[in-house]
Amino acid sequence: MAKAGNQVKPGAPDRLTMNLFAPGMTPLHRAGLGGLACTLRYIEKAYRHDALTDGDVPGGPWEAERPPWEVGDRSVELRFGDPKQARPFLERLFALAFPIKDGLIGTPGVYPGLTPPLAVRAELQNGLTLTFLQHGKTRNLNKTPTQIEIDPDGDGRAYVRLEYKRCVNGSSTRTVGKN
Question: CB-based contacts of 27: which residues, under 8 Å, 6+ apart?
Answer without folding.
Answer: none
